[in-house]
Amino acid sequence: MKTQDLTMVPRSDQDASLPFPSLDGNTLQAYNKLVSTLYRCLHDNTGFQSFFDAFQQHFKALQGGILGVTSNPQRMVYGWTFGYPEGFEEWYINSDLPEKDEALTRYARLPPRQFDSFLGGDSSRTILDILGPESRAWAEAVGMGDSAGMLVTRENGTNVVFMANRHQDFGPYTDDELLQMNLLAPHIENAVALHLKLYQSNSDNENLAMALNHVNKPLVVFNALGSIAQANDAARNLLTHTGNLFIGEDQRLHSSDKRLSRKLHDAISTCIVHSHKGHLDTRTLFIHNGPERLAICLTPLVAESVENNGVLAELFSFDIEPVPDLERIQTLFQCTPAEAAVAAALIQGLGAGAIAEEKQISIHTARQHIKNLLAKNGYRKQTELVAMLVRALG
């Protein structure tokens, strides 16, 4: 059979109305346990992990999760996952794979609340013949045998998709299993909708946002979905002045440059994912805007419930032409003139390689100056040092 013959399409309403096999007593009891576990997830701060654990065991799932994905381009902006290696979410957010992920594309096109699988129970097929090169490489690496999923909801340009991959050792998902998933589907939709309501009404970030206008420097608070909960007047004035950044109708921060928009959204999403794991390092983005350079320091916000974490963005505007005050840098950061010159370059958004080229020094020397700046000022990471340089001199 040719590869194109293996490509699946969503089942029609007529197909969905065909009789399914019935559930036996034990299976129905297991299904009821899954439903109760799902709704219990709304009463604690562990997200959907307990439901994922039960789902993974019951359906012999390898990995998956609930992912919020923008439509055009297809990018992951938030999510809860299970079964993936450490650091997967950050890598996935910052990669091109979501745009080429056949599973995400397939499930996003389904009618809401309708599970479907790639193989439809046919053990004579292999999912590797269906997937494109990028997804096939991942599937081969983890031993994927089948994938099932559903569109949970579609709202404000974001598709929320539930997906569950399965190892090849367990064969394709059966009709019985897809029946159980379809019985679960409306409950998954309800639970996710309620969880998103809890995100959007998070009092921690709202209270912080209300206090922003008491601070003169430009500040923006992003909620757990990466949307803007509040931007103070100073931030809105700066955004208007730059003309390059703006708040869109979807309440996200955008740029007229699509690549920059993507960079912003990926950095914010990465911050939120890091906050779930207790990594609270500040990330700094540098944006060129004519004669100015804009620096955005992103710091994770930790709420009482980890699932309500957000991000605080501090905005700083620099003139490109004036040379930073090296004497002031030496005084503030206890460093030599050579180290101050490297610090000034870090404020301009340069890395060690670019600094070495600009200063006509070896990259080893540039890295050594950065290490000295870290050690003298008690910072563990270069991102922390850059954020403090920007805050001190912005």
DSSP summary: helix tally = 17
Work out the radius of gyration.
24 Å
Q: Biggest β-sheet, characterized? A: 5 strands, antiparallel
Q: What fraction strand?
A: 15-25%
Coarse structural class: alpha+beta
Structure characterization notes:
InterPro entries: Sig_transdc_resp-reg_C-effctor, Tscrpt_reg_LuxR_C, WH-like_DNA-bd_sf. One of its GO terms (biological process) is regulation of DNA-templated transcription. This protein is of the alpha+beta class and 394 residues long. The chain contains 17 helices and 12 strands. The protein has helices at residues 3-6, 13-16, 25-40, 49-58, 88-93, 97-100, 102-108, 133-142, 175-200, 203-211, 233-242, 258-276, 326-333, 337-347, 352-359, 363-377, 382-393; strands spanning 61-70, 76-82, 116-117, 144-155, 158-167, 219-222, 228-231, 245-247, 253-255, 283-289, 292-301, 310-319. The chain has a 5-stranded antiparallel sheet, sandwiched between helices. A 5-stranded antiparallel sheet has the order 7-6-12-11-10, with helices on both faces. Strands 8-9 form a two-stranded antiparallel sheet. Helix 3 runs antiparallel to helix 4 and helix 14 (337-347) packs across helix 17. The termini are far apart. The model is unreliable at 1-21 (pLDDT under 50).
Summarize the structure.
The chain has 394 residues and is α+β, with helices and mostly antiparallel strands. The chain has 17 helices and twelve strands. Helices cover 45% and strands 21% of the residues.
Fold blueprint:
Layout: H1 3-6, H2 13-16, H3 25-40, H4 49-58, E1 61-70, E2 76-82, H5 88-93, H6 97-100, H7 102-108, E3 116-117, H8 133-142, E4 144-155, E5 158-167, H9 175-200, H10 203-211, E6 219-222, E7 228-231, H11 233-242, E8 245-247, E9 253-255, H12 258-276, E10 283-289, E11 292-301, E12 310-319, H13 326-333, H14 337-347, H15 352-359, H16 363-377, H17 382-393
